[in-house]
Amino acid sequence: MKELYKMIYQRKSVRKYDPALSISAEEMEAIKNQLVNLTPLVPDIRIKTVILEREKTTAKFGEYCLLLYSEKKPHYLLNAGYLLEQMDLFLASRNIGVCWYGLAKTKEKQVDGLDYVIMLAFGKSKITDFRKDAFEFSRKSMDEVWKGAFDEEIKTAVRIAPSACNSQPWFFESENNMINVYRTKKIKTMIPARFLSYFNAIDMGIVLCFLEIALLHKNVAFERKLLPETQTKAILIGIAEYQI
After folding, report:
1. End position of a domain, from candidates 76, 100, 129
2. What gap in Å lies between CA 225 and CA 204, rounded to an integer?
3. Cβ–Cβ under 8 Å, residues 50 and 102
4. What pTM did the predictor assign?
5. Residue 62: left (phi > 0), alpha (psi -120 to 50), or beta?
6. Are residues 88 and 152 in the same domain?
């Protein structure tokens, strides 16, 4: 996955597309090939991806939509975010804009016994639709998302990960050779309360993807442990531990 590192700083949620541009047959073939080569967070969760013309969903922009269906096993939402973020970065590397589209609907709620989770809207974009560096991101300060000394480049990559309504529901602690990853409930967001834990679980999969791409880029070996999913009133919910 480390070949996607550069796109961490260039990706952008694209919501406006030039109708004069379209995805070529060769680009669509490359997209389909990439889909079968994604790295799962949880390998034993069955998933299926489907590409539809945008008009076959309720999405309001983009040329196509990439839908993900999944078994509802522990960590399936983390896995969904982790997988589709790889596609987000891959598509950006081809000048194909993407936007996570959480509230869009599809008629097919199940495919091959798997439940619909979320979709990406995407379409051919201009190079000017993407960012140039980390300074163009609107994100929390580093102190709000990471406690402890660690490689600053890796911390920056994590800080600029995308999330639903830019809610940024993550918090990291590093000490000695350990990184602890939490989902924090201390966020400001327009997401309705009934949807918040669902979309923020996907967000946590996205940020784990960013973290691991950055670790791989810096040649930092790690062992990951996903923590059991729990219902708690605590502000910080443990998601994963990384032994460095």
Report:
1. 129
2. 14
3. no
4. 0.95
5. left
6. no
Out of 87, 103, 129, a domain closes at: 129
> What is the sign, positive or negative, of the torsion defined by CA atoms of 170, 189, 73, 52?
negative
Tell me the Cα Rg of the chain. Answer: 17
Question: Does 145 lie in the same domain as 85?
Answer: no
The CA distance from 66 to 125, in Å, is 16
- Contact present, 8 and 213 (Cβ < 8 Å): yes
Q: Pinpoint the alpha helices (H) of 55-181.
A: 76-93, 142-145, 152-159
Q: What is the distance of C-alpha 229 from the center of its chain? A: 19
Whole domain around residue 86: which residue ranges? 2-129
If one counts every other C-beta atom within 10 angstroms of the C-beta of residue 150, the result is 17
**Type of residue at 52:** L
Give the closest residue to 85 by CA, choosing from 204, 237, 184, 180. 204
Q: Which residues of the chain have pLDDT under 70?
A: 133-136
Instruction: List, for residues 45-80, the tens digit of each pLDDT value.
Output: 999 999 999 999 999 999 999 999 999 999 999 999
Same domain, 164 and 107: no
| Mean pLDDT over the full length of the chain | 93
In contact, 118 and 80? CB cutoff 8 Å:
yes
* Per-residue model confidence (pLDDT) at position 134: 59
What are the E-state strand segments in the chain?
47-53, 64-70, 96-101, 110-111, 114-124, 146-147, 170-175, 178-184, 223-226, 236-243
Q: How many structural domains does the chain have? A: 2
